[in-house]
Structure formats: C-alpha cells, structure tokens
Amino acid sequence: MALTGSPAGTEHLRRQNTGLVLRSLRVDGPATRTELARRTGLAKATVGSIVGELESGGAVTENGTASTTTVPSGRGRPGKPVTLTGEAILGLGLEVNVDYVAAVAIDLSGRVKVVETRPVATAGRPPSATELVELATDVRSSLIASGHTVVRATVAVPGLVAHDNRTVSWAPNLGWNGRELAAELEHAFAGGCPTTIDNDANCAALAEASHGVAVDVEDSLYLTGTIGIGAGIVQRGTLLRGGAGFAGEVGHMPIGDPTATCGCGRLGCWEASIGLRAMLTAVGMDEQATPLQTATAVADRAASDDSVRTALAALGGHLGRGIATLAAVLDPSAIVLGGYFVPLGEHVVPAAQQVLAERLPSADIHLPEIRLSTLGIHAAALGAAEHALADVFTGAVPL
C-alpha cells in the first residue's frame, strides 16, 4: 500500500494511519467509513482512501454482506460496513520445546488457518533445530501453494531472548546459548519471510489475552506447564518485558525444594518442584510424546489411585506458594495455567487456590482467580502468530 514517489514522512504517516484503521477493525469489529473516522480520529476522506487500498489488497471487504448489515451514517444512503477479512494474509507462529514443535497460522482477522504439532525424539539429548525448520518450511510451502501470503514468522522459545528478537540468549532446557535462531529460519525460508523470536510464556500470554480465558481482564499472569516453568505478564493489556526483556523467568525463582536440581544446574528452582518432570517423579510415571498426552495419562491414573492424587495435591501446594509470591508483586486479576496443568486442573488447582488465599496478604480484598487455559498445547504458537502480525497493525509492515 505504499504511495509511489511520496516523501518518506508522508509514507510513514500513511502506514501509521493504515495500521490504526486495521487495529480498529480487529479490536472493535466492522464499521462504516464514517464510524471508522470517528473511532480513529482520521478524516473521512483519509479513511476512504485507506479502505479502498485495503479492499484492493484483499484485507477488507465493504459489501454489507459479511456478518453485519448496512448502517446509517448520517445524511444520504446508509453506509456499508467495512469488515476485516484478510484471509490470504497470514502470520506464522512457531514453537520449539524440549519434546515437541508446533506451528499455527492465522489471518488478519485472527482466524486460525493451520495448526500442527510434531513430537521431537531427542533420546535425552538437547534438541536441534532440525525438526522446527522442517515443520516451518513444510507449513509455509503448503500455505504459499494454496495462494496465501505469509508476511512474517515468530518463534516461541522456552528461554531468554536477546534484545534483537533474533537470538536465543539462554534456554537451558534446550541446551541453547547465543543461538541465532531467526537467521536459521530465514535461511530455510530463502529470505522470503522475516522472522523474529520471543519467549514462549510471553507468546502464550498474548494468545490468552486475545483468544483465551483472559480476554475479559487487562492484567493477567500466564504460567507455562512444560518441563520448564515461565510466566507471561500482561499489564493494562500490554506484555511486561522488563529492562533487558527477561521478565517472567519465574521457574528459576529459588522457592522450590532446596535439594532438587534444576535443568539450569542450580538447586531449589521453582520448576524443579512443579515442572513436568518433577510432577512425573512425584507420581512415579513415565513421560509420553507431549506434555498434554503425559498429563492426560496421569489424570487417568489419578482417577483410581489415591497416591497419585495425594502427590498432585502436594504439587498444587508448591504451585500455590509460588503463585502467591508473584500475585503479591504483580497483583493480576487472573492467573492462567497452561500446558500440563490443564488436564490435571481438578487435582492441582484447589490446593493452589487454597494456598494462594492463605499466603496472599491482600486476599481478603482481592483474590485472583486461577483459570485453566482453553488453548491447548498450541497457545504459544498461536501467540507467536499474533506477534508475527503485530507490525502489520502498527503500519510498520505494509500490505
């Protein structure tokens, strides 16, 4: 949608205004050009020009038939609603974890177009990026072959991501340190898809805020439930990243069993007491292909085994103590549990909620609700796909 020959300042403003219109349609839904002008504060003529270009590019429709009827817009004929469609314009979200890789593609309106997960067989060794690259290239090639445009990709990783949003600074459960993962993916894409990286908990928190059980609150805390434990912190609708971008590494808070060894090599980390493998040790069961499959098997055993139920309740107590610490600092309206916690919710949440109520100083005034994610194992990849489209909605990436 660039204006050929326009001054740089004019082009920048044009992109910003286009992003403003796109965000309004995504967040607030269809509207006439007059209503869009009111929402965005732009002149109606400016909105009309932007809508025309977006419609010619397949990002919106203006025909009065998509999900709404025509709306009066003042004098003259009723205005036709502009609806965000963008079905062929996609963001690709990817996730790499210790035992699986996942991909989700969404269009501009947030509709999910592709979901795929593949197990990673590492035989106890740190995973390579091979499985991720194969999944990413397979999914992208299939999308392009079916007429879609993948504007960007984002990879969710369980670790610290450098300020460049391209380098994995530290991911102990993957055995990666300083890995330039974005460059590896871009090379596999033959330079055809700009790629960034973000923390998996941040991505999952973004997915919960836009698609999941946290859509009704502005302040939430998301906890991953995989081998590692990370947090995504949303305050006033925005991810909290911290001074170096490392906010949310809660799994390594020294509040777990002081004798338990963590994947990072330290003793007493929280995830060494509540991570997936810590849970399996507590219940005496083996890991399966994915965290959700593993947790489902444990839940099945818990239905008839008192010792498993007791172990899970104890784990819920450890979970609640950490949550109480975080809630005292962050004051979230809701705490969302993802990953393996979801199938085991009935066994761990009551104990966690009880400890939270006992330990949180402000519990009598405000007690955050513990909620279970409904997005499944693809939460981080879904949030990564939203992240991949973010620059479209700011106007930084033209359509």
3D structure, described in words:
The strands form 4 sheets. A 5-stranded mixed β-sheet has the order 5-4-3-6-9. It has a 5-stranded mixed β-sheet with strand order 12-11-10-13-14, sandwiched between helices. Strands 1-2 form a two-stranded antiparallel ribbon. The N terminus is likely disordered. The longest helix is centred in the C-terminal third of the chain and has 25 residues. It has 12 helices and 14 strands. The protein is globular. The protein folds into 3 domains: 77 residues, Arc Repressor Mutant, subunit A; 130 residues, ATPase, nucleotide binding domain (Nucleotidyltransferase, domain 5); 159 residues, 2-Layer Sandwich (Nucleotidyltransferase, domain 5), CATH 3.30.420. By secondary structure, the chain is α/β, with parallel strands linked by helices. Strand 10 and strand 11 form a beta hairpin.
Q: Level of helix content?
A: 25-40%
Architecture per CATH nomenclature, i.e. the level-2 architecture of the largest domain = 2-Layer Sandwich
Distance from N terminus to C terminus (CA atoms, Å) equals 6 Å
How many separate domains make up the residues?
3
Q: Tell the overall outline.
A: globular
Give the integer mean of the pLDDT values: 91
Count of helical stretches = 12
| Estimated structural class | alpha/beta
Which CATH first-tier class of the largest domain would you pick? Alpha Beta
* CATH superfamily (homologous) name of the largest domain: ATPase, nucleotide binding domain
Strand order of the largest sheet: 5-4-3-6-9
Computed over alpha carbons, the radius of gyration is 23 Å
Assess the beta-strand content as a share of residues.
15-25%
Biggest sheet: strands, sense, closure?
5 strands, mixed
Low-confidence stretches: 1-8, 65-74
Identify the quaternary structure here. Answer: single chain
What fold name goes in the CATH topology slot of the largest domain? Answer: Nucleotidyltransferase, domain 5
Tell me the series of helices and strands, N- to C-terminal: HHHEEEEEHEEEHEHEEEHHHHEHEH
How many distinct beta strands? 14
